[in-house]
Amino acid sequence: MRSKEFSLARYRRHARPAIVLVALVIAAAWQCEVNFRDLLKGIAKGLSMLAFFFPPEWRAFPEMIHPALVTVIICVIATPIGAALSIFFGLAGARNLAPPWLRLLCRSLIAIERGLPEIVILLILVAAFGLGPFAGIMALAIGSIGMLGKLVSDAIEEIDGRVLDSAAAVGATRLQVIRHVVIPEVLPSLVSHSIFRFEVNVRASVLLGAVGAGGIGYELNAAINQLEYNRATAAALTTLALVFVSERASDFLRARILGGGTV
Amino acid sequence: MLEVRNLVKRLPDGRVLLDGLNFRVERGEFVALIGASGAGKSLTMRAIVGLTSVSEGEVVFTGETGKVYRPTATSAKELRRARRNIGCIFQGCNLVRRLSVLDNVMIGRLGRIHPLRSWFYGFTDQEAREAMESLDRVGMADFAARVTGSLSGGEMQRVAIARAIYQHPLFYLADEPIAALDPKNTEITMRLLQPLACENPILGAFHQPDVVSRFCTRAIALRKGRIIYDGSPHLSSQQLAAIYGDGGAHPADMQPALVGS
After folding, report:
1. A184 lies in a domain?
2. Assembly ipTM
3. Which of A224, B77, B224, B253 keeps 20 to 30 A from A92, CA to CA?
4. Does some domain include residue B185?
């Protein structure tokens, strides 16, 4: 009897937030004119549409190899550039190395960058450099700085101040301290995070391709626009394989690096 | 050869951490700096190597050619010149854990080689050989290729000593080199330091009166930033009671001793 009262009290505690949540969803659905009759109709239509996508156009697969390579190459170029730049941003954004104004400036720039989705950066860059892989490379490189720069800064701030002091105490200049203490301490984690970022970039690169950066995303978008649904399936399956392989490769490499513990 | 003149460290809020220290360390001496936590031992060391600014006074030492060095100078160039002649042996945790043991020893020479050369890792074979000799002297030559983070505390301490030897300093500063070590490693470390002191003087901060009386040639005791004893390392229990106070540390002694510059 007692436990029943207890559990009722527990439910009552959750009742109010639950009612608020449901009310919000209903209000939002009403505002967006969500219509269940349309949903039911749409499911049937969507299923019949799906039939158009199968079977994939097998002949198209060889043609997908080149765009897929472009997508990978965009990331292979963009990720190291982003990682290298993030070392500079990381150094300038670390409390124990940079003066406060520089740290604030760098941290703010990085935070703003993180707030901008890659696609927004790409659209700005496309206006400057035109369509094509180059704008995609730049967008992903800049996009990588937001995450990697912050991680490098944080890793540098975690270095024991006494280690920095003891290197300065032998007469090392600030640049020598960076070269012989800071970089060796943060490099393994930067490499590991860059490999993870590469995997994120592959997925982002597919999306950017659809907007005009070239590669497999462009093929996918073009095929759908031209109503060549079977060809689109070929592009989608290639993308799936690409993402899967890059994820496995990234996991493997990071396990190798982190497994070493103290590479 | 090392002279500390009227060293005063005052905080902006008016607290006095070092209150007019005066002492000289001569060739062949192994001087122990003792005192309760917060008495100013570490701060004195940091002031001598220029890691903290001082309000008044100066630190001066002379090289074999009579050249004068001032680590309390404000010019970066002069500070660098002074620092490369001071061999600092901090606790082992001050090594770069991800570098190899040999690379950590090489850091000892950074003050003497051009920043550009060190940036591209242009250590010469001769420099590497000398680094190995320093490691050999502390019995750690077999560990040269090991990652430093995988060493034990006592082993790291020996590497830190090798780094200081490799630096060829005019004198050594050892800030609580045995504080984190067990009795066996304490013995090993002190037996390494003692012969070094015969070549170049050592100023070390210690907490163990028995170790001080066995290995050191002189003791300087600090209390609340003042020198209250300077003389024989063999201290009586009354003297120790005066130095360490009546047990618990006074609230005024609890200020952080490691104030950044």
Report:
1. yes
2. 0.82
3. B77
4. no
Do B156 and B77 lie in one domain? The reply is no
Is the pTM for the entire model greater than 0.80?
A: no
| CATH number of the domain within which B93 lies | 3.40.50.300
Both A39 and A67 in one domain: the answer is no
The answer to whether residue B13 sits within a structural domain is yes
For A35-87, how does the pLDDT look when each residue is reduced to its tens digit (9 = 90+)?
Answer: 777 888 888 888 888 887 778 778 878 888 888 888 888 899 999 999 999 99
The full DSSP string for B108-124 is: GGTTTS-HHHHHTT---
Cα of first residue to Cα of last residue in chain A, in angstroms, is: 61
Which residues neighbour A231 within 8 Å (Cβ) at sequence distance 6 or greater?
A: A56, A57, A60, A223
Task: Name chain A contacts of B84, Cβ cutoff 8 Å.
Answer: 170-171
What pLDDT, in 10s, does the model give residues B226-247? 888 888 888 888 888 888 875 5
Minimal CA separation from B87 to chain A, in Å: 7
Domain range for A156: 60-259
- B248 DSSP assignment: S
Interchain pair B103, A180: CB under 8 A: yes
